[in-house]
Design goal:
Length: 543
């Protein structure tokens, strides 16, 4: 089976064989390295010096009269070895004026390395040879660029008018005659031209066996930080030309743009369909209503519960978050989450539906958030619209309980704002005592309860500008170790003993007894919570 090749075989180089067909080479003689006549030539250079290591870049055809070595066989051999080392394409020598013959050791070395040596037995115009070959190379290169630009223009027209990647593949086939295949994710390969199953299997057999008669290339299509698709191109018996390789690269770029456009449109559509998610997060939907809505957006695999991530922005500036959400969708889906997004003023809710084991949800979510933050910190658009806090709510295994995850995510943000934590990301499950403090504050006069335990210490510090509250906190944190407490407070033990005596008078000698100590530690945290809340309110009022 042989696939037809179409288009023009253009490249930005010639082979030595092709150059030998030009008029100035009619009477030349190839005396060595015939197997190297397929070497590519990208430039022709006249060279008469014998030290050339720094002068060549590779793929040059060298013209010489031999003036540099004359009849010295060792100098001629050295010159040849330098050409081979510099990956020159071949050597053309004009016999007569400066050298009359080529030494046998030079011919043997050239044959050993498949390096062509071509002789002119009469005087030839080197200037006209270089002009002729360079003009041909430049014209071919210009034509290749022109054809490539025309092909790119055709691709751009297709991107504006079609929604089927198969038409882009067909365009590549029509322009090159190459056999083309496209694989998106783990789906079956789409082929161009259309072919029966037998031919498809034959191509796949060639690819899997890496058959020597098949010239095959695979071009990954990168999208949103991952390999989204693979473009396969194959030719039998003929290697791909430089133009064809560049054409495949342009096609891969066009396919990436096509897929990105599709994903962008899908994301915009999702934004328009968030009304039901708002009701869901408000606890207004039954389980059956949730399942009906979920069937349209996530029906490919079973859902094993989920969690809500609440993201709060520092500024109210409007910006297009669609591309931003595309990146996040890619990140979360790689860790086994299906992402739903709902926006509310300065808040963006990420509803993460778990498609893998429940026991690993947090580890996978932390991996996703770590990747997100790394990409976020390097993105200028993100820096201009900075995130202030990210709160992760409780994990819910039942979909009709997801509104509780949303409520706890919001509470996590609220506690973060009051405590002014340095880190951006916090899990509700990690707040521990602060969750109890927040709950108590909602139902009781928290300040009254705190003062019941700590007012004597607070009043003493305010009256005498003392540091009993700080000493109490560190003493409890050190489990009553006087040595460690003095070290952390940077005071001598005698000073610490005096402060502990004062605390015993104010709180009672039993303040280190287990139950009372636990209550005092809790009240210190509550006191700090109230202090930060008061400070946040003052900053808000003062603008």
């Amino acid at each position: 089976m042989k696939f037809a090749r179409g288009g023009v075989d253009l490249k930005s180089y010639l082979t030595v064989t092709e150059i030998l067909t030009r008029k100035h080479f009619v009477n030349c003689e190839v005396i060595a390295g015939e197997r190297g006549l397929t070497n590519s030539v990208k430039w022709v250079h006249v060279m008469e010096v014998t030290r050339i290591n720094e002068l060549l870049k590779g793929n040059e055809l060298i013209l010489s009269t031999g003036v540099g070595w004359g009849e010295d066989s060792q100098s001629c051999l050295s010159f040849l070895q330098q050409l081979i080392s510099c990956k020159a394409s071949g050597l053309c020598i004009e016999l007569g004026t400066y050298t009359s013959k080529i030494p046998q050791i030079v011919i043997d070395k050239a044959n050993e390395c498949d390096f062509p040596i071509i002789l002119f037995h009469e005087e030839v115009p080197f200037v006209e040879i270089t002009q002729d070959v360079h003009s041909l190379l430049i014209n071919q290169h210009y034509q290749m660029i022109s054809d490539l630009e025309q092909y790119s223009h055709r691709l751009n027209q297709l991107l504006l008018t079609v929604n089927d990647p198969a038409l882009i593949l067909q365009c590549l086939y029509e322009s090159t005659g190459l056999l083309v295949g496209l694989k998106v994710s783990n789906e079956l390969i789409t082929f161009a031209p259309e072919m029966d199953l037998l031919k498809q299997q034959l191509l796949l057999h060639y690819i899997s066996r890496e058959n020597e008669s098949l010239h095959f290339t695979e071009q990954p299509i990168h999208l949103l930080g991952q390999d989204y698709a693979q473009l396969y191109v194959a030719s039998i018996n003929e290697a791909l030309t430089e133009l064809e390789v560049l054409t495949v690269d342009r096609t891969a770029t066009a396919l990436a743009q096509h897929f990105l456009k599709d994903l962008y449109v899908e994301e915009k559509k999702r934004v328009d369909e968030t009304e039901w998610m708002t009701k869901w997060m408000n606890g207004e939907l039954t389980l059956e209503q949730i399942k009906d809505s979920m069937h349209e957006v996530c029906s490919d695999s079973p859902i094993r519960g989920g969690v809500v991530v609440c993201c709060k922005w520092q500024r109210r500036e409007k910006f297009d978050r669609t591309y931003f959400k595309l990146i996040l969708r890619s990140i979360f889906e790689q860790e086994g989450f299906h992402l739903l997004v709902s926006e509310r003023n300065r808040e963006v809710l990420f509803i993460l539906l778990n498609k893998r084991m429940v026991s690993t949800w947090r580890e996978r979510l932390e991996n996703s958030l770590h990747r997100w933050m790394n990409q976020y910190e390097s993105d200028e658009n993100s820096k201009r619209n900075a995130i202030s806090f990210i709160g992760i709510g409780q994990y819910c295994e039942q979909l009709d309980c997801m509104h509780k995850s949303y409520e706890t995510a919001k509470e996590t943000i609220s506690i973060q704002e009051m405590l002014q934590k340095q880190t951006i990301i916090h899990f509700y499950d990690d707040l521990h005592m602060y969750r109890i403090i927040s709950l108590l504050h909602q139902h009781e006069d928290l300040q009254e309860v705190v003062f019941e335990y700590l007012q004597p210490v607070i009043t003493y510090d305010e009256t005498y500008n003392a540091k009993l509250m700080e000493t109490l906190k560190i003493y409890l944190a050190c489990n009553g170790s006087k040595q460690e407490t003095a070290k952390r407070l940077y005071i001598v033990r005698q000073t610490l003993y005096h402060r502990i005596e004062k605390l015993e008078k104010l709180l009672g000698e039993d303040f280190m007894e287990p139950e009372k100590r636990l209550a005092i530690e809790f009240m210190i945290m509550a006191y700090e919570y109230l202090f930060m809340m008061k400070k946040s309110r003052a900053e808000f009022i003062n603008g």
